[in-house]
Amino acid sequence: MDSKHSGDSARFSLEERLAPHKSGMALLVLDSVLILASIAMFIVAVTPLARYWNDVLRLMVIVVSVIYGFFVGPILYFGLKVLKPNEALVLTLFGRYYGTLRGEGFYFVNPFVTGVNPTAKHDQASSNAAEKPAAATAKYGSYTITIPNKKLSLKAMTLNNDKQKINDSLGNPIIIGIVVIWKVVNTAKAVFNVDNYVEYLSIQCDSALRNIVRLYPYDASDDEGEKSLRGSSLEVAERLKEEIQAKMTIAGIEIIEARITHLSYAPEIAAAMLQRQQASAIIAARQMIVEGAVGMVEMALEQLSKKEVVTLDEERKASMVSNLLVVLCGNRDAQPVVNSGSIY
What pTM did the predictor assign? Predict the structure, then answer.
Protein backbone atom coordinates (compact mmCIF):
# COMPACT_ATOMS: atom_id res chain seq x y z
CA MET A 1 0.00 0.00 0.00
CA ASP A 2 2.83 2.40 0.88
CA SER A 3 4.60 1.75 -2.39
CA LYS A 4 1.38 2.43 -4.30
CA HIS A 5 0.90 5.80 -2.61
CA SER A 6 4.53 6.74 -3.12
CA GLY A 7 4.21 5.89 -6.81
CA ASP A 8 1.11 8.06 -7.16
CA SER A 9 2.86 10.89 -5.36
CA ALA A 10 5.86 10.68 -7.66
CA ARG A 11 3.65 10.59 -10.73
CA PHE A 12 1.72 13.72 -9.77
CA SER A 13 4.85 15.59 -8.65
CA LEU A 14 6.41 15.22 -12.10
CA GLU A 15 8.42 18.34 -12.86
CA GLU A 16 9.56 19.72 -16.17
CA ARG A 17 13.22 19.39 -17.14
CA LEU A 18 15.22 20.54 -20.13
CA ALA A 19 15.84 17.87 -22.73
CA PRO A 20 19.52 17.20 -23.61
CA HIS A 21 20.17 18.86 -26.96
CA LYS A 22 22.82 20.23 -29.30
CA SER A 23 22.91 22.92 -31.94
CA GLY A 24 20.72 21.82 -34.82
CA MET A 25 22.54 23.88 -37.45
CA ALA A 26 25.96 22.47 -36.52
CA LEU A 27 24.65 18.91 -36.63
CA LEU A 28 22.84 19.54 -39.93
CA VAL A 29 26.01 20.77 -41.61
CA LEU A 30 28.23 18.04 -40.10
CA ASP A 31 25.80 15.24 -40.90
CA SER A 32 25.27 16.46 -44.46
CA VAL A 33 29.02 16.63 -45.07
CA LEU A 34 29.52 13.12 -43.66
CA ILE A 35 26.69 11.69 -45.78
CA LEU A 36 28.17 13.25 -48.93
CA ALA A 37 31.62 11.98 -47.95
CA SER A 38 30.22 8.49 -47.34
CA ILE A 39 28.55 8.45 -50.74
CA ALA A 40 31.75 9.67 -52.38
CA MET A 41 33.83 6.99 -50.62
CA PHE A 42 31.32 4.33 -51.63
CA ILE A 43 31.55 5.39 -55.26
CA VAL A 44 35.32 5.39 -55.12
CA ALA A 45 35.39 1.96 -53.45
CA VAL A 46 33.28 0.30 -56.15
CA THR A 47 35.06 1.88 -59.10
CA PRO A 48 38.50 1.24 -60.57
CA LEU A 49 39.81 4.26 -58.63
CA ALA A 50 40.34 1.91 -55.68
CA ARG A 51 42.22 -0.74 -57.64
CA TYR A 52 45.33 -0.23 -55.53
CA TRP A 53 43.39 -0.82 -52.25
CA ASN A 54 43.52 -4.26 -50.71
CA ASP A 55 40.29 -6.20 -50.45
CA VAL A 56 39.91 -5.75 -46.67
CA LEU A 57 40.23 -1.95 -46.86
CA ARG A 58 37.82 -1.76 -49.78
CA LEU A 59 35.28 -3.92 -47.96
CA MET A 60 35.56 -1.82 -44.80
CA VAL A 61 35.08 1.43 -46.74
CA ILE A 62 32.02 0.04 -48.53
CA VAL A 63 30.42 -1.23 -45.31
CA VAL A 64 31.07 1.99 -43.35
CA SER A 65 29.92 4.18 -46.24
CA VAL A 66 26.71 2.22 -46.72
CA ILE A 67 25.90 2.13 -42.99
CA TYR A 68 26.43 5.85 -42.45
CA GLY A 69 25.41 7.26 -45.82
CA PHE A 70 22.20 5.27 -46.19
CA PHE A 71 21.17 4.51 -42.59
CA VAL A 72 22.84 6.42 -39.74
CA GLY A 73 23.09 9.79 -41.49
CA PRO A 74 19.43 9.98 -42.61
CA ILE A 75 18.24 8.74 -39.21
CA LEU A 76 20.06 11.63 -37.50
CA TYR A 77 17.91 14.08 -39.46
CA PHE A 78 14.92 12.93 -37.39
CA GLY A 79 16.57 14.49 -34.33
CA LEU A 80 16.39 18.00 -35.80
CA LYS A 81 13.65 20.11 -34.20
CA VAL A 82 12.60 23.69 -34.97
CA LEU A 83 10.63 25.71 -32.42
CA LYS A 84 9.03 29.12 -32.83
CA PRO A 85 8.81 31.73 -30.03
CA ASN A 86 6.61 30.62 -27.11
CA GLU A 87 6.52 26.99 -28.21
CA ALA A 88 7.56 23.85 -26.36
CA LEU A 89 8.01 20.22 -27.32
CA VAL A 90 7.59 17.44 -24.75
CA LEU A 91 9.72 14.42 -25.68
CA THR A 92 9.59 10.80 -24.62
CA LEU A 93 12.13 8.05 -25.26
CA PHE A 94 10.71 4.54 -25.38
CA GLY A 95 7.80 5.56 -23.14
CA ARG A 96 9.80 7.51 -20.55
CA TYR A 97 9.85 11.27 -20.16
CA TYR A 98 12.99 12.52 -21.89
CA GLY A 99 12.67 16.26 -21.39
CA THR A 100 11.19 19.45 -22.83
CA LEU A 101 12.51 21.82 -25.45
CA ARG A 102 11.46 25.44 -24.84
CA GLY A 103 11.81 28.65 -26.81
CA GLU A 104 12.70 29.48 -30.38
CA GLY A 105 15.65 27.75 -31.96
CA PHE A 106 17.02 24.93 -34.08
CA TYR A 107 17.82 21.90 -31.93
CA PHE A 108 19.22 18.42 -32.28
CA VAL A 109 18.06 15.72 -29.87
CA ASN A 110 18.09 11.95 -29.78
CA PRO A 111 16.51 10.94 -33.12
CA PHE A 112 14.50 8.19 -31.42
CA VAL A 113 12.52 10.56 -29.16
CA THR A 114 8.85 11.23 -29.82
CA GLY A 115 6.91 14.44 -29.37
CA VAL A 116 3.82 14.17 -27.14
CA ASN A 117 0.77 16.42 -27.12
CA PRO A 118 -2.57 14.82 -26.10
CA THR A 119 -4.57 17.68 -27.62
CA ALA A 120 -3.11 17.03 -31.09
CA LYS A 121 -5.41 14.04 -31.65
CA HIS A 122 -8.17 16.45 -32.67
CA ASP A 123 -5.82 17.99 -35.22
CA GLN A 124 -4.84 14.59 -36.62
CA ALA A 125 -8.43 13.46 -36.88
CA SER A 126 -9.37 16.53 -38.92
CA SER A 127 -6.48 16.24 -41.40
CA ASN A 128 -5.71 13.82 -44.21
CA ALA A 129 -2.54 12.11 -45.35
CA ALA A 130 -1.81 14.69 -48.04
CA GLU A 131 -2.08 17.76 -45.84
CA LYS A 132 -1.70 18.10 -42.08
CA PRO A 133 -2.28 21.65 -40.77
CA ALA A 134 -0.09 23.19 -38.10
CA ALA A 135 -3.10 23.90 -35.88
CA ALA A 136 -6.80 23.11 -35.60
CA THR A 137 -9.82 24.35 -33.67
CA ALA A 138 -11.12 21.79 -31.18
CA LYS A 139 -14.29 21.65 -29.12
CA TYR A 140 -14.09 20.72 -25.44
CA GLY A 141 -17.50 20.65 -23.75
CA SER A 142 -18.83 24.19 -23.97
CA TYR A 143 -15.43 25.64 -24.88
CA THR A 144 -13.50 26.07 -28.12
CA ILE A 145 -9.76 26.51 -28.49
CA THR A 146 -7.11 26.50 -31.21
CA ILE A 147 -4.42 23.89 -30.58
CA PRO A 148 -1.05 23.27 -32.27
CA ASN A 149 0.09 19.97 -33.75
CA LYS A 150 2.48 18.11 -31.38
CA LYS A 151 4.08 21.31 -30.11
CA LEU A 152 2.67 22.95 -27.00
CA SER A 153 1.95 26.67 -27.10
CA LEU A 154 3.32 28.67 -24.17
CA LYS A 155 1.35 31.76 -25.16
CA ALA A 156 -1.54 33.15 -23.15
CA MET A 157 -4.60 31.49 -24.69
CA THR A 158 -8.34 31.99 -24.32
CA LEU A 159 -10.99 29.42 -23.55
CA ASN A 160 -14.31 30.76 -24.83
CA ASN A 161 -17.36 29.46 -23.00
CA ASP A 162 -20.71 28.97 -24.68
CA LYS A 163 -23.58 30.56 -22.77
CA GLN A 164 -24.91 28.24 -20.07
CA LYS A 165 -28.12 28.15 -18.05
CA ILE A 166 -27.40 28.04 -14.30
CA ASN A 167 -29.55 28.76 -11.22
CA ASP A 168 -28.40 31.57 -8.95
CA SER A 169 -28.62 31.53 -5.14
CA LEU A 170 -32.35 32.36 -5.30
CA GLY A 171 -33.06 29.56 -7.75
CA ASN A 172 -33.64 31.90 -10.70
CA PRO A 173 -32.33 30.47 -13.99
CA ILE A 174 -29.80 32.78 -15.62
CA ILE A 175 -27.77 32.68 -18.81
CA ILE A 176 -24.07 33.28 -18.22
CA GLY A 177 -20.94 33.11 -20.37
CA ILE A 178 -17.30 33.47 -19.35
CA VAL A 179 -13.87 33.66 -20.97
CA VAL A 180 -10.78 32.18 -19.30
CA ILE A 181 -7.26 33.33 -20.19
CA TRP A 182 -4.61 30.73 -19.35
CA LYS A 183 -1.19 29.40 -20.27
CA VAL A 184 0.90 26.28 -19.74
CA VAL A 185 3.67 26.77 -17.18
CA ASN A 186 4.72 23.14 -16.62
CA THR A 187 4.66 21.10 -19.81
CA ALA A 188 5.44 17.79 -18.08
CA LYS A 189 2.43 18.08 -15.76
CA ALA A 190 0.19 19.24 -18.60
CA VAL A 191 1.05 16.22 -20.77
CA PHE A 192 1.47 13.40 -18.25
CA ASN A 193 -0.63 14.26 -15.16
CA VAL A 194 -3.96 14.49 -17.00
CA ASP A 195 -5.30 12.73 -20.06
CA ASN A 196 -6.00 15.94 -22.02
CA TYR A 197 -5.12 19.20 -20.30
CA VAL A 198 -7.46 21.36 -22.42
CA GLU A 199 -10.41 19.04 -21.86
CA TYR A 200 -9.54 18.90 -18.16
CA LEU A 201 -9.49 22.72 -18.05
CA SER A 202 -12.85 22.88 -19.81
CA ILE A 203 -14.49 20.51 -17.32
CA GLN A 204 -13.06 22.34 -14.31
CA CYS A 205 -14.18 25.72 -15.69
CA ASP A 206 -17.75 24.45 -16.03
CA SER A 207 -17.68 23.01 -12.51
CA ALA A 208 -16.19 26.15 -10.96
CA LEU A 209 -18.69 28.38 -12.78
CA ARG A 210 -21.64 26.46 -11.36
CA ASN A 211 -20.14 26.45 -7.86
CA ILE A 212 -19.61 30.22 -7.87
CA VAL A 213 -22.88 31.27 -9.55
CA ARG A 214 -25.03 29.38 -7.02
CA LEU A 215 -23.50 31.50 -4.21
CA TYR A 216 -24.78 34.85 -5.53
CA PRO A 217 -28.15 36.25 -6.61
CA TYR A 218 -28.44 37.76 -10.05
CA ASP A 219 -29.19 41.20 -8.61
CA ALA A 220 -29.55 42.81 -5.18
CA SER A 221 -30.83 46.17 -4.02
CA ASP A 222 -28.23 48.75 -3.06
CA ASP A 223 -29.53 49.32 0.46
CA GLU A 224 -29.18 45.63 1.32
CA GLY A 225 -25.44 45.65 0.72
CA GLU A 226 -25.60 42.10 -0.66
CA LYS A 227 -23.13 41.10 -3.35
CA SER A 228 -24.60 39.95 -6.65
CA LEU A 229 -23.50 38.66 -10.03
CA ARG A 230 -24.45 41.92 -11.73
CA GLY A 231 -23.28 44.35 -9.08
CA SER A 232 -20.10 42.56 -7.94
CA SER A 233 -18.79 41.21 -11.25
CA LEU A 234 -15.13 41.92 -10.38
CA GLU A 235 -15.31 40.01 -7.10
CA VAL A 236 -17.19 37.14 -8.75
CA ALA A 237 -14.55 36.97 -11.50
CA GLU A 238 -11.74 36.90 -8.93
CA ARG A 239 -13.40 34.08 -6.99
CA LEU A 240 -13.97 32.22 -10.22
CA LYS A 241 -10.28 32.55 -11.12
CA GLU A 242 -9.19 31.26 -7.69
CA GLU A 243 -11.64 28.34 -7.90
CA ILE A 244 -10.30 27.24 -11.29
CA GLN A 245 -6.64 27.78 -10.37
CA ALA A 246 -6.98 25.57 -7.29
CA LYS A 247 -7.86 22.65 -9.56
CA MET A 248 -5.36 23.36 -12.34
CA THR A 249 -2.08 23.15 -10.40
CA ILE A 250 -1.95 19.41 -11.05
CA ALA A 251 -2.12 20.08 -14.79
CA GLY A 252 0.67 22.68 -14.83
CA ILE A 253 -1.66 25.47 -16.02
CA GLU A 254 -1.78 29.05 -14.74
CA ILE A 255 -5.08 30.93 -14.89
CA ILE A 256 -4.31 34.53 -15.80
CA GLU A 257 -7.83 35.91 -15.84
CA ALA A 258 -11.47 34.82 -15.80
CA ARG A 259 -14.19 37.26 -16.84
CA ILE A 260 -17.97 37.21 -17.29
CA THR A 261 -18.80 38.02 -20.90
CA HIS A 262 -22.59 37.58 -20.80
CA LEU A 263 -25.15 37.74 -18.01
CA SER A 264 -28.93 37.75 -18.34
CA TYR A 265 -32.07 36.09 -17.02
CA ALA A 266 -33.28 32.98 -18.81
CA PRO A 267 -35.96 33.72 -21.45
CA GLU A 268 -38.74 32.05 -19.43
CA ILE A 269 -38.42 34.56 -16.57
CA ALA A 270 -36.85 37.52 -18.35
CA ALA A 271 -40.18 39.35 -18.91
CA ALA A 272 -41.29 38.93 -15.27
CA MET A 273 -37.93 40.08 -13.95
CA LEU A 274 -38.01 43.10 -16.26
CA GLN A 275 -41.39 44.11 -14.82
CA ARG A 276 -40.00 43.66 -11.33
CA GLN A 277 -37.03 45.91 -12.11
CA GLN A 278 -39.33 48.51 -13.66
CA ALA A 279 -41.58 48.42 -10.58
CA SER A 280 -38.58 48.84 -8.27
CA ALA A 281 -37.37 51.79 -10.34
CA ILE A 282 -40.82 53.43 -10.27
CA ILE A 283 -41.09 53.01 -6.49
CA ALA A 284 -37.61 54.46 -5.96
CA ALA A 285 -38.45 57.42 -8.23
CA ARG A 286 -41.78 58.05 -6.44
CA GLN A 287 -40.05 57.94 -3.08
CA MET A 288 -37.57 60.56 -4.22
CA ILE A 289 -40.34 62.75 -5.65
CA VAL A 290 -42.36 62.60 -2.41
CA GLU A 291 -39.32 63.44 -0.29
CA GLY A 292 -38.57 66.42 -2.51
CA ALA A 293 -42.20 67.59 -2.53
CA VAL A 294 -42.45 67.47 1.26
CA GLY A 295 -39.27 69.52 1.53
CA MET A 296 -40.57 72.12 -0.93
CA VAL A 297 -43.93 72.43 0.86
CA GLU A 298 -42.17 72.82 4.20
CA MET A 299 -39.91 75.50 2.75
CA ALA A 300 -42.89 77.34 1.17
CA LEU A 301 -44.82 77.46 4.45
CA GLU A 302 -41.73 78.56 6.34
CA GLN A 303 -41.00 81.39 3.89
CA LEU A 304 -44.63 82.59 3.88
CA SER A 305 -44.69 82.68 7.66
CA LYS A 306 -41.26 84.29 7.97
CA LYS A 307 -41.95 87.11 5.50
CA GLU A 308 -45.58 87.52 6.71
CA VAL A 309 -46.89 87.42 3.18
CA VAL A 310 -50.15 85.90 4.28
CA THR A 311 -51.51 84.49 7.53
CA LEU A 312 -53.02 81.04 7.20
CA ASP A 313 -54.91 79.08 9.78
CA GLU A 314 -54.44 75.33 10.16
CA GLU A 315 -57.31 74.50 7.81
CA ARG A 316 -55.89 76.72 5.05
CA LYS A 317 -52.40 75.33 5.61
CA ALA A 318 -53.74 71.80 5.20
CA SER A 319 -55.52 72.82 1.97
CA MET A 320 -52.37 74.48 0.65
CA VAL A 321 -50.25 71.46 1.51
CA SER A 322 -52.70 69.18 -0.26
CA ASN A 323 -52.74 71.33 -3.39
CA LEU A 324 -48.93 71.64 -3.51
CA LEU A 325 -48.44 67.88 -3.08
CA VAL A 326 -50.92 67.17 -5.87
CA VAL A 327 -49.05 69.56 -8.17
CA LEU A 328 -45.55 68.32 -7.25
CA CYS A 329 -46.33 64.59 -7.16
CA GLY A 330 -48.76 64.35 -10.05
CA ASN A 331 -47.96 62.49 -13.26
CA ARG A 332 -49.39 65.26 -15.41
CA ASP A 333 -48.96 68.99 -15.55
CA ALA A 334 -51.30 70.81 -13.17
CA GLN A 335 -54.19 72.86 -14.60
CA PRO A 336 -54.39 75.99 -12.40
CA VAL A 337 -57.75 77.56 -11.49
CA VAL A 338 -57.54 81.34 -11.05
CA ASN A 339 -59.79 82.68 -8.28
CA SER A 340 -60.59 86.30 -9.06
CA GLY A 341 -62.58 86.84 -5.89
CA SER A 342 -61.83 86.49 -2.23
CA ILE A 343 -59.94 83.46 -1.14
CA TYR A 344 -62.78 82.95 1.33
Answer: 0.66
